[in-house]
Amino acid sequence: IPRGSGSNKMLVVSWISSVFGNMVSALFILNNKFDLIFVFGPSPFTICLPAIFIKKIKNIPICFWVLDLWPESVVSAGNLKSGLIPRLLIPVVKFIYKYCDRILVSSRGFIDSIVEKGISPNKIGFFPQWAEPIFKPDKKNNEYFDNKISENSFKIMFAGNIGEAQDFPAILHAAKILKHNKNIHWIIIGNGRMAGWVKNKIVEYELQDCFHMLGRHSINKMPKFYSQANAMLISLKKDDIFSITIPAKLQSYLACAKPIIAMIDGTTAQLVRDAKAGLTCESGNA
């Protein structure tokens, strides 16, 4: 989806279409017996609406695991300038929370926002994310890299979404500052809305020799990629909502026993420092 106001309209259309698509899917499973509806809740938040539909018909409870806080994350990640979409979303969010019997949060920092929407703290529990078993220390493996990345270089690796929230302008600025050190390489694994913009900036800043976009790969390959890194990079742009968000990549980085460079505020930075797992600086500090 291209950036700009048109992309925001497309996002809204995507949210609505996903609700109707999941409603149709729900019709095909209603003949089965269930004890509980468990909703895994990254964006879009509206994924919970079909669950409420099933709850009404089957009279069974919903447990909603909140990994993205709405509407705050929509405003920040989407870089929204208008308050219209957040105002429209707040009643939907309150409606979803109301009909959930149990709400789990991946960060304790989410709790206040949910309570402010009229939900009892007794209904909310802390349930952190974890790394899949596949993530563990692995032997060094260079099979996925080309000859442009020296085996003996210092490799800073980022894995995940390439979007507005991850603050790639600051990451690229840091790479620009260091580009004359030919021994430092930046390796980006993943894709996202800003991938095209990042590729253009790599050319503009003349970073082709040190900044490498390797695209999206299956989760099974990630430990092999991580094995080559000297440090793993985690970043989120400066925003109150991101200061209480814990990106899922943190757990996989830690599980693979890799040092972390964190350009992030708040909860995640504190976790890295408490674990003595790497170096931190505030969001946006290239």
* Residue-averaged pLDDT: 85
The DSSP helix count reads 11
What's the alpha carbon Rg, rounded to whole Å? 20 Å
Label the structural class.
alpha/beta
Helix content range: 25-40%
Helices and strands, in order, run as: HEHEHHEHEEHEHEHEHHEHE
Strand content: 15-25%
The span between the termini is 27 Å
Layout of strands and helices, then pairs:
Layout: H1 5-27, E1 37-41, H2 49-58, E2 62-66, H3 72-77, H4 84-99, E3 102-105, H5 111-116, E4 124-126, E5 154-159, H6 168-177, E6 184-189, H7 195-204, E7 211-215, H8 222-228, E8 231-235, H9 240-243, H10 249-255, E9 260-263, H11 266-274, E10 278-281
Parallel strand pairs: 1-2, 2-3, 3-4, 5-6, 5-8, 6-7, 8-9, 9-10
Helix pairs in contact: 1-2
Key descriptive features of the protein:
286 residues; alpha/beta; six-stranded parallel beta sheet
Overview of this protein structure:
The chain is α/β, with parallel strands linked by helices and 286 residues long. It contains eleven helices and ten strands. The protein has helices at 5-27, 49-58, 72-77, 84-99, 111-116, 168-177, 195-204, 222-228, 240-243, 249-255, 266-274; strands at 37-41, 62-66, 102-105, 124-126, 154-159, 184-189, 211-215, 231-235, 260-263, 278-281. The strands form two sheets. It has a six-stranded parallel beta sheet, sandwiched between helices. Helix 11 (266-274) links the parallel strand 9 (260-263) and strand 10. Helix 1 (5-27) runs parallel beside helix 2 (49-58). The longest helix has 23 residues, at 5-27. The two termini are 27 Å apart.
